[in-house]
Amino acid sequence: MGRVIIDITMSxxxxxTGPNDGPCNGLGDGGRILHDWVFKGTDADKPFLMGEGYDxxxxxxxxxxxxxxxxxxxxxxPMQGTVFVLTHRPHETVQRGAxxxxxxxxxxxxxxxxxxxxxxGKDIMLMGADVSQQYLHMGEVDFMTLHVANVLLxxxxxxxxxxxxxxxxxxxxxCVPTPSATHMQYKVTKTR
Length: 192
Description:
By secondary structure, the protein is of the alpha/beta class. Helix content is 21%, strand content 34%. It has helices at residues 36-39, 46-49, 63-73, 108-119, 129-137, and strands at residues 4-11, 15-17, 56-62, 81-86, 94-96, 99-104, 123-127, 143-149, 157-158, 169-177, 181-189. β10 (169-177) and β11 (181-189) form a beta hairpin.
């Protein structure tokens, strides 16, 4: 069975956006600095940008993430294949470039089951803070790659809020510091 993966950039103080994130301001005020490693990175950053080691068969993101990023992505979203959008609001399927966004209103467990069927033994990529939090809380995340940008934002959208009070043990499998970010990879130990 494939892994459920979080691969996301955050500030040293744990924010994945700056404050006031929303449509036309997807990374929030000052949040673009989080992705300096993507746009101004070194050769040491490139393997992490390319997602080496992943075999992605499906994705899951939240409706808020979709609504904020959809316009910015246009016909070139940073994913391909089937991406399930976890939502409370029904929506028709959306085709953007090589990605098909399927909107699911049956909850996180049903969405994960659909993603597992679609992935057919390959990995499932999670996108967005809220979706990542939900699946961490459910004990369904197997692997995390955290790109920790060399910045303190002070406020914004936190990655690890609302994950519950149970211990989630991590095993560090790689840590690569670069001038723009520190790339940390963890296996997630199931505790629930």
